[in-house]
Amino acid sequence: MSIIILDKFISELKIISNYQVLLENENLEESKYLKAKYLEFKSLQNSLQQRQTILYRVTKAIVELQKEFFYKGPSVIRPLTLKDIADKLSVHESTVSRVISNKYIETNYGILPYKYFFNSKIGDKDI
């Protein structure tokens, strides 16, 4: 079993080389503006990378805690809460909630929203 986080858009986030040259511009006003925007870009890039890392960790924890589901199917899914994952990863529940919001996971049993794994009911679920 493997975990692959599709991050095509994050890996394509780059500064155009023409702007890189402008960062070294002699014009102090332009240079200040561009450097500020460059710092914003780097901050955004770092935030997106952190989000991907947390999504990977959450996915890995779900796979570990719901291992039977991935091998045997929906009839053996266990009750699981956001708090269970948050505690396991030492992050806040809201962090887990935000990172899985509007995200899906491809399994042998279909493409499911991450929130599917946080339902406390057991078995007899339609996928």
Automatic annotation (TrEMBL):
Annotated ranges, domain RNA polymerase sigma factor 54 DNA-binding: 32-124
One Pfam entry name: Sigma54_DBD
Gene3D superfamilies: lambda repressor-like DNA-binding domains
InterPro entries: Lambda_DNA-bd_dom_sf (IPR010982), RNA_pol_sigma_54 (IPR000394), RNA_pol_sigma_54_DNA-bd (IPR007634)
PROSITE patterns on file: SIGMA54_1, SIGMA54_3
Domain of life: Bacteria
UniProt GO MF annotations: DNA binding; DNA-binding transcription activator activity; sigma factor activity
Protein name: RNA polymerase sigma factor 54 DNA-binding domain-containing protein
